[in-house]
Write a sequence for this structure.
């Protein structure tokens, strides 16, 4: 892929910028853009554009802050000039923070190192001590290694618990608060009627006017530990036992309270918990946000069971609690994605996101009264992400989807609306998924859009009205296509109700022959937290690798997944076993009806994590359609998996719905071929979730295959051995 990536460097005039773009395997060009006019200049190097190349950096003048590589941009390089009489070791720091050795640099020598924009490199002495860190830019950067880099500036730590006026310092003791007067360092103990076995937790949160502070108190709730065995540690021959905190659905959670202390009073007031009796939290502390005038403090109440969510306010003068905003749902409130808020204290308002209309939209509230002033957005489409709020212009900028008839409803577009609900405008045009980067002044934005079947296009647009300034780049995928890579085919069919459109993709082998018949394999992930069929252009290497083994690979989003409105999403409520299968089967059958080369007599499925749960469920409940499944690191019983993900969709208290969705309880229903893969050291999904399925299958006398990957964690099927085992199992039983 060429001309598919660019990073703008804006110049001091704030209306011109340059970028570097790769044009072929061994060449690139620089482009200078004037955003006011759309004029562009091309050149092989920066000086040809009339711009100076970057001056060499000196290691002694750069910060010594090793960090992970954050992104992979255009092909670039670093020129290292070792001016020291020391041999240095060179390491690339990958995205996970791991150091990857790249050899040595001799004393008083130079070295060119190919890299990519955004990659971080570290130089160390023979003893491992750090000398220099450099992050690669879009052009080759020269680093003169003349000494050790500067240590990061350590700012003086603020004194914990100090009041905004500096007059008092409050600190927590187990069962009381000690307040010290900074003027004479005199101290006194403050107490409140908390439970005898409770203690104060976290930090002290002072009001801006220093007249009061809030602190949390809670009874200790021990966390569950999950224990695993590292059977083959790398550093010794004997197995190691490892244990880590892992709270599961139904476990006891803390119930922190707030205690209010006022200046001049020696006794605190425990805030009445009537409006926040059963919080969903693993913390023993309640975070609070104060109003700028110190009159009240705000905190969230996410009720366990996820059917009620409140923002509450504590009055600093009286200790009274009131509801600022409240959401209620008969199913679930998507608290991880759809409880965004933005305080507008200057006008006494705040913006709030809600799905009360059946779609995620923004609402303007009066803070003091808690009354709704108006809806900011409305319609049968969701707000997906808020990018910016302009309090002066009273505008909000956001990404939304489902805006245009006939376009994929998952595609993101940039939009703007006035806070009074007027002036809605969509600012992007291309039929694709849009990613936005604003200029420093926000007068312009770079719009990168693509589709699963359309390479990226970069455009420069005016923020005022979205009008096009100029097209910057249109990606060149000719070399990719010449390699035999096949473009994913987008397909739409009706779901289980015969009304709602289901969207997905099909991938054919690079050696595809329409006269042949191919088995079908579905890559499934049906987690309700998001949607998963690709919307951006990508090489999709794993999917193509499986397709090239002789399969038609499909990936789609059935009901129960996110971003299509509340009714579509609610199918997952207490029903994770559904996994959208009625929609998936209808979609695959509709695709095959017009594609005789899809053999629905040979259908397989694979997935990992929540997808592993779904993959096994396919051969429990839908083995008349799916005959082969590979389930990797599956959360096969939602009572065994992490609390936050499972109670979000399955509810609390635990009820029979957990058993209904359990692959363990339903293991006796297995028909078809099943391979279970699990990472021995999985700390994301308890590995016992898989071994309990194994036990249930053995008890039921079922035939299956089981492949633990020793030393692997979550996603064990993505290890070289695991991915090979998965592919060979599919080939063995589907016979491509």
């Amino acid at each position: 892929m060429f001309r598919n990536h660019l990073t703008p460097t804006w110049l001091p005039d704030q209306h011109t910028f340059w970028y570097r773009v790769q044009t072929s395997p061994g060449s690139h060009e620089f482009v200078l853009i004037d955003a006011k006019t759309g004029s562009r200049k091309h050149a092989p190097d920066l000086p040809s554009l009339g711009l100076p190349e970057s001056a060499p950096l000196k290691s002694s003048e750069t910060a010594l802050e090793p960090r992970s590589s954050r992104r992979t941009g255009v092909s670039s390089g670093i020129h290292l000039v070792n001016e020291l009489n020391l041999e240095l070791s060179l390491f690339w720091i990958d995205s996970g923070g791991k150091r990857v050795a790249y050899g040595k640099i001799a004393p008083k020598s130079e070295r060119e190192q190919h890299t990519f924009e955004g990659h971080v490199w570290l130089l160390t002495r023979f003893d491992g001590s750090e000398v220099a860190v450099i992050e690669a830019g879009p052009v080759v950067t020269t680093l003169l290694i003349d000494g050790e880099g500067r240590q990061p500036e350590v700012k003086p730590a603020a004194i914990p618990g100090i009041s905004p006026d500096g007059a008092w310092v409050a600190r927590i003791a187990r069962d009381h608060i000690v307040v010290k007067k900074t003027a004479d360092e005199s101290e006194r103990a403050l107490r409140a009627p908390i439970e005898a076995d409770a203690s104060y937790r976290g930090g002290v949160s002072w009001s801006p006017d220093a007249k009061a502070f809030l602190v949390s108190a809670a009874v200790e709730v021990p966390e569950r530990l999950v224990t695993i065995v590292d059977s083959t540690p790398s550093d010794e021959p004997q197995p190691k036992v490892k244990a880590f905190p892992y709270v599961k659905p139904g476990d006891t959670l803390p119930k922190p309270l707030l205690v209010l202390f006022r200046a001049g009073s020696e006794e605190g007031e425990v805030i009445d918990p009537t409006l926040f009796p059963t919080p969903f939290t693993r913390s023993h502390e309640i975070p609070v946000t104060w109003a700028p005038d110190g009159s009240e403090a705000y905190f969230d109440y996410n009720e366990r069971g996820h059917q009620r969510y409140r923002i509450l306010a504590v009055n600093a003068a009286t200790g009274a609690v009131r509801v600022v905003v409240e959401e209620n749902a008969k199913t679930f409130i998507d608290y991880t994605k759809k409880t965004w808020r933005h305080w507008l204290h200057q006008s006494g308002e705040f913006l709030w996101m809600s799905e009360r209309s059946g779609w995620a939209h923004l609402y303007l509230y009066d803070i003091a009264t808690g009354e709704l002033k108006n809806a900011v957005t409305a319609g049968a489409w969701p707000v997906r992400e808020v990018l910016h709020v302009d309090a002066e212009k009273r505008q909000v900028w956001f990404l939304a989807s489902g805006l245009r008839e006939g376009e994929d409803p998952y595609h993101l577009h940039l939009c703007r609306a006035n806070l009074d609900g007027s002036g809605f405008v969509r600012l992007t045009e291309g039929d694709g998924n849009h990613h936005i980067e604003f200029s420093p002044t926000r007068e312009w934005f770079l719009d990168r859009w693509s589709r699963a079947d359309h390479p990226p296009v970069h455009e420069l647009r005016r923020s005022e009205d979205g009008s096009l300034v100029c097209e910057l780049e249109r990606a060149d995928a000719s070399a990719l296509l010449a390699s035999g890579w096949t473009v994913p085919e987008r397909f739409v069919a009706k779901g289980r109700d015969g009304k709602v459109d289901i969207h997905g993709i099909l991938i054919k082998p690079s050696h595809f022959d329409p006269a042949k018949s191919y088995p079908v394999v579905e890559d499934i992930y049906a987690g309700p937290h998001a949607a998963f069929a690709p919307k951006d252009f990508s090489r999709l290497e794993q999917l193509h690798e499986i397709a090239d083994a002789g399969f038609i690979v499909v990936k789609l989003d059935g009901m129960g997944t996110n971003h299509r409105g509340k009714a579509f999403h609610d199918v997952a409520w207490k029903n994770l076993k559904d996994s959208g299968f009625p929609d998936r089967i209808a979609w695959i059958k509709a695709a095959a009806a017009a594609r005789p080369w899809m053999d629905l007599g040979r259908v397989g499925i694979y997935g990992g994590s929540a997808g592993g749960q779904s993959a096994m469920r396919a051969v429990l409940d839908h083995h008349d359609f799916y005959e082969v499944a590979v389930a990797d690191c599956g959360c096969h019983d939602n009572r065994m998996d992490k609390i936050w993900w499972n109670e979000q969709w399955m509810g609390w208290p635990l009820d029979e719905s957990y058993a209904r969705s359990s692959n363990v309880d339903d293991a006796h229903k297995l028909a078809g071929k099943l391979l279970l893969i699990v990472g021995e050291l999985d700390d994301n999904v308890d590995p016992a979730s898989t071994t309990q399925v194994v036990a249930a299958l053995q008890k039921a006398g079922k035939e299956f295959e089981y492949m633990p990957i020793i030393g692997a964690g979550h996603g064990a099927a993505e290890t070289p051995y695991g991915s090979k085992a998965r592919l060979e199992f599919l080939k063995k039983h589907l016979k491509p």
Summary: The longest strand covers residues 598-608. The CA atoms of residues 260 and 510 lie 67 Å apart. The radius of gyration is 29 Å. Residues 720-734 form the longest helix (15 residues).
